[in-house]
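Data availability (excerpt). The following record was deposited with the supplementary files.
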Amino acid sequence: MYKIGKKLAEAAEEIEKLKNIPKEVFIRAICDSIAGAYRKKMKLLSSDSIHAHFDEESGEIGIFVPKTVVQQVTDPAREIDLAQAQEYIPDVVEGEILELDVTPEDFAEFGRIAASTAKQIMTQRIREAEKLNLRDEFTQKQHSTMAGTIKRIEYTVRGQPNVVVDLGNFDVHIPMKFQVSKENYRVGNRIRVYILEYREDRRVPMIIGSHTHEDLVRELFELEVPEIEDGTVEIRSIAREAGQRTKIAVSSSSDDIDPVGACIGARGSRIQNVLSELRNEKIDIVRYSDDPVDFISNSLSPAEILTVALFDDDHGRRAEVTVAPDQLSLAIGRGGQNVRLAAKLTGWKIDIKEASEASSKKSASSFDENEDDLEEASGKEAQV
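Predicted structure:
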């Protein structure tokens, strides 16, 4: 065996700290690479049971090869002369297999090619261990949010920025399509990301994260609102245009708890923490209702709704909503954002119409009395 001291064990412990690879895996990779180098030098087959062993206590490493005891040696790499074998074990007989220490006194005799083979095997084993660790981390953290620090900004061949976030045990990559367009990503900034998917379609596998996913908002509210965590308040749906505006529908299983108030908190303390994480992205919290009319009306907040007519035909589920002239722009929102998010939140296609002054009064007075009046609104229309 060859004395290498405690350096290999120390290197293994360092790798374990830096890359989270168990030192046993690293040492096994080293031993296998040395055995592979010997196999290549001696022109042995992969089926030959050659192995290397490291004794951590003594600091020695050795290469062991099984050899068959024969009367006359024809293959020195696989056979040993009976007389020579009896020097090790006096009562050995022909045909027995002895596992012999064939460690060279100087590892340098492996040569450049053998050393290169050892390096390739060791690198492959370490890469496989890293890949396995990364996949395990992803399995444990998938569909959850984690806080980390921006480690670096990479640029693809197309010039698109890829944000790399250090989450402690592993890095997560945020491609451009999962980044908030108005966000200023800088190295060293703290950021919370949603663990989205694991990609192994390239030489180096990676975990993909998102800064735009709706469930990022969901988990932030779960962290800040105890009633959501214990199930008293439930988030029924979320519609988000990351970096600009989010609508969230909530309900309560208890008549004593206001779901909207629980999410906002005393003096806005709870929602303020969420807003801080989302860089002051606008958030509308609306009350969920099993009645589509009420739910659609609530979803278009802060606009005041006069009438809602529901249709379910060959064109799908749609709602015709009538508002007063001074509420039209509020209901539609800048660039159609308010009605677009409301449609996504409720699952209904929403048409918004402006009522004339006369029909506004009529609709307002007959909202709870006659459903036929709901279709009489006319004027300007916006569709989502």
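Summary of structural features: Confidence is low (pLDDT under 50) at residues 360-384.
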